[in-house]
C-alpha cells in the first residue's frame, strides 16, 4: 500500500528558479500544489510558462491568483512609467550591479515575496499542508531584500505564529528554499538532472510581444551567465 | 512652519476596532493612509462603512484593494457553503466560546491578517512610511491566531528583513497595535473620546441585505457586550 504523499505549496513564477524548485519538491516525494500570481507584471507571459511547467512536472493542481500589486506601483516591473534597465555587457549580473551601486534595483517589487508567501500560507492552511517551497537564492539574489536567508527564517517563525498549527501546537510549517545556496549554473545542472525543460521557462523582465526574451535586462544577464557557466545552451528564444 | 506629518498605513475593515485605531493614529499626529480589502467576504458591506469612516476621520487617502481569499475557501466568512454560527445567548463572547471548545472558530480566515499586513507593508514601502496600524486585540481576539501579540512581534521582525529599510539600515518599520491590551468596552470609550461615530461601523459577520446587523453572530455578541459594559447604547441598527 502506497503512503499518502505529503502536500506542498510551490511558488511557481514560470522562471528558471521556480521550475527547478518544483522539480526538486516533486523528486522529494511531495504532492505539489503550484501557485502563481498575476500581479500586474509587464512580463505576464511568464504565467503561460508556469502553466506549461506545472503540467510537465505533474503538479496536482496549479492556481493563478489575480492580486493587485500594481495598485501600489513603485517598481519597473509593475509601473509602465518606469523603464526596465537594459545593458549590453552580457556577463554583468544584477548582483554585481547592485553591489557596485549599493542600492536595490528598480525592478524590486515592494513586499512581493512577503505577499506571495502569505497567499501560499493561506492555501497551505486550507489544504492541511505544512510545506511551502520558494526558489529564492542567496547568491544571485539581485539585491532584493526578500530573497535573503534571514528573511525566510523570520517569515517561517512568523508563519508558525499566524496559523492554527501555531495555536494548537501541531506540526510546524516549513519554508523550503532548496536553491538558497546554489549558483545559477548549479541550479540549471540540478534542473536538467530532474527533467526540467528550460525552454518552457522565461526569466525576462521585458519580453518582446512574441515572447522572445530581451537578453539585455538584469534577469536575462543572470540566466545567460548561468547557462554559460553550466556549459549548456539556453533553449529559450532571444531577440538578440 | 508646520512640520510634515509622518505617514501611517492604517488597516481599516469598517468595524469598530479599526475605526478606533484610525482615530488613535490620527490623534497621534500621523497622516493616515487607510487600507481596506475586498476579499470575498460575505459581509462586504463593511467596505461602505470603511469609506464613511475614512472620510469622517480625514484619511489622506483610502484604498480598497480587491484580493482573492475566497479562491482558497476554508472559512465561513468567505465560503458560502459554510454557515456563520449564530447564538441567542447574547452575552457569550466569541472568546468564551473559543476557550470553551479549545478550538479556532470557523469564521477564522486562513492567513488573513498576514496577507493584509503584507499589502500594508507594500504600500508603506512605496509611500516611504515606516508605520503600520492594525486594530488587533489580545483580550477579545476570538481565538484567531493572527491577532496575538507574539504574531505581531514576529511580523514586525520579518517585515524589517523584507524591505529596503532592512537592507540599507534606515529607520525601522513599526507595527502599531494600540488596542492590543484593551477590552471592547475600553476601545469603545476611547473611540467616543476621539470622535468615532460607531453608527458608521459594522461588526456583523452575517448582515441582512439592508445592512442591519444580525445581533447573534460571535462578532455581534462581542460588540454588544462591549457597549453594554461601557454603559453606552450601540448606534448600529440590528435585526433583533
Please characterize this protein's 3D structure:
The structure is a homodimer of 240-residue chains. Chain A has a five-stranded parallel beta sheet with strand order 3-2-1-4-5, sandwiched between helices. Chain A has 240 residues and is α/β, with parallel strands linked by helices. Chain A has one domain (6-83, 109-203): Rossmann fold, CATH 3.40.50. In chain A, helix 7 crosses helix 8. The radius of gyration of chain A is 17 Å and the shape is globular. The first copy, chain A, is built from eight helices and five strands, in the order βαβαβααβααβαα. Chain A has helices at residues 16-27, 46-56, 94-101, 112-127, 149-162, 164-168, 184-193, 218-230, and strands spanning 6-11, 30-38, 61-66, 131-133, 174-176. Mean pLDDT of chain A is 84; it is low at 90-102. At the A-B interface, strand 3, helix 4, helix 5 and helix 6 of A face strand 3, helix 4, helix 5 and helix 6 of B.
Question: Characteristics of this structure?
Answer:
homodimer, 240 residues, alpha/beta, Rossmann fold
Summarize the structure.
Two copies of one chain form a homodimer. The first copy, chain A, has helices spanning 16-27, 46-56, 94-101, 112-127, 149-162, 164-168, 184-193, 218-230, and strands at 6-11, 30-38, 61-66, 131-133, 174-176.
Give the percentage of residues in beta strands of chain A.
5-15%
**CATH architecture classification name of chain A:** 3-Layer(aba) Sandwich
Q: What is the molecular shape of chain A?
A: globular
Q: Could you report the average pLDDT of chain A, rounded to the nearest whole number?
A: 84
* Spatial gap, N to C terminus of chain A: 53 Å
What oligomerization state is this entry in? Answer: homodimer
Runs of chain A in which pLDDT lies below 50 for 5 or more consecutive residues are: 90-102
Strand order of the largest sheet of chain A: 3-2-1-4-5
If helices are DSSP runs of H or I spanning 4 or more residues, what is the number of helices of chain A? Answer: 8
